[in-house]
Amino acid sequence: NVTTYGCFSGCTALKQVSISTTVKYIGGGVFEGCTALEDVGDLSNVTTIQHSSFTDTTALAIDIEMSSLTSMIGSPFLRSGITKFSAPLLEVIPGGSLYNNGPFTNCKNLIEVNVPSVTSIGKAAFAECTLLYKVSDLSKVEVLGDGAFKNCESLEFEDLSLPNLETLGQDAFYGVSVKKISNLGKITALP
């Protein structure tokens, strides 16, 4: 049972954690503020990750592969140093309450995201990820929140096609290079 918050938060000297394949749940704030953390082990069997789990882990410049992840709550990677994120089973990427606290907001090293099953991307989910240049197929996305990709200035869409889109948030693609929009799905109004 997980009943505490942030059991290792603020451990600024912590550099490595060997998370084993038996770990299925990562609680809120567990490694928040562990600014020297560089490696976390195998996250492939984690099914749930809570808010602020890796917030402000700026030295964590690794590829995150979460092949079993089905539940993301809050902003687990806010301002982290991760370079790639893959979660092929994840359907919902939550949003933040403000433009500055989505799940991946201000991940300045994040260059690639692979979430092929995602149907909902929340408010400010990837805002200010200035090096992000590759996002997996978004054809299943139904909801795209306010500022979802705001100021992702390295992100380019030659032909933006969102055939299942039902809700499009304000500033969702603000500062993104979109060259052509061929399909905005089922939306009836542009914010």
Report on the structure:
Helix content is 0%, strand content 21%. With 191 residues, it is mainly beta.
Can you tell me the residue ranges where pLDDT is under 50 for at least 5 consecutive residues?
Answer: none
- The level of helicity is under 10%
Q: Structural class of the helix and strand makeup?
A: mainly beta
Strand percent estimate: 15-25%
Order of helices and strands: EEEEEEEEEEEEEEEEE
Q: Profile the largest sheet.
A: 4 strands, parallel
Our measurement of the CA-to-CA distance between the termini, rounded to an integer number of angstroms, reads 43 Å
Q: What oligomeric state is this?
A: single chain
Shape: globular
- Rg, alpha carbons: 16 Å
Tags for this model:
globular, four-stranded parallel sheet, 17 strands, 191 residues, 0% helix, mainly beta
In short:
The protein has 191 residues and is an all-beta fold. Helices cover 0% and strands 21% of the residues. Strands 5-7-9-11 form a four-stranded parallel sheet, with no helix packed on it.
Element layout with pairings:
Layout: E1 16-19, E2 25-26, E3 39-41, E4 48-49, E5 63-65, E6 71-72, E7 84-86, E8 92-93, E9 112-114, E10 120-121, E11 134-135, E12 143-144, E13 156-157, E14 160-161, E15 167-168, E16 177-178, E17 181-183
Parallel strand pairs: 1-3, 2-4, 4-6, 5-7, 7-9, 8-10, 9-11, 10-12, 12-15, 13-16, 14-17
